[in-house]
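Deliverable D5.2: sample structural annotation.
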Amino acid sequence: MLELVRSTSSFFTLPANPQAQTGLVVGLAQTPEELEHIQRLRFEVFTSEYGAVLGNHPDRIDQDAFDPWCEHLMVRELHTDRVVGTYRVLTPIQARRAGGYYSESEFDLQGLGSIKNKLVEFGRACIHEDHRQGGVLMMLWSGLAEILKQGQYEHVFGCASVSLRDDGNTAAKVWRQVRAEVGLCGRPNVTPLCRYPVEQLDSALPADVPALLKGYLKLGARVCGEPAWDPDFNTADFPMLLSLRNMGTRYRRHFGFPTLE
């Protein structure tokens, strides 16, 4: 693994999990073996928690045609070497080589205008169930920040997937909270190719907004279109766009970006 960020500080470790006090490290997968560990984690999380249908993979791995073109962020426990979190990152240059972005299988990105050809796409995010109190996610974001700084990228695009195992109640609640911000004048937006009909659901039913989506919004990202339906992963996918100029001062300082005047 090409190490990007290491931390044993209380900010990154997880007080609820004493074993995590020995620290975490985030970096980029460098070997086929590391990528396989990542793909196994993805398979485990996506099939057990989303009910995803990932095809006939006897080796219990999640892989697709975009994996070879992407950088794979991985968070590893220092005391066990276990991979506990991952993001897949596709840069603009690699997207052109791959024939486009994975997101284009779900959305028409033309509404992003000139931003479209400058996107860093993040996706396939998953964190082991033992590490969801915040530390691993912040490590992944630190790794993503290093990629953005080194490549001098400004715009990040991806999806916040909401499980449909509750018959879409959570997806409807998310849409109720963000729909007023979608389509505001001057803001770029995307169009789902297979739209999920959230307006037909009873959004008044109780549901908790997923922590990952909440985190994106706190970071400064915004939902930039209606959700797409992904039947293979059994999710409603909300398109998220983060432009670094919209990142809050606290996060800019933490991740080492220059503070805006």
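Annotation notes: The mean pLDDT is 85. The longest helix spans residues 32-50.
The annotation will be released with the project's public dataset once the embargo ends.
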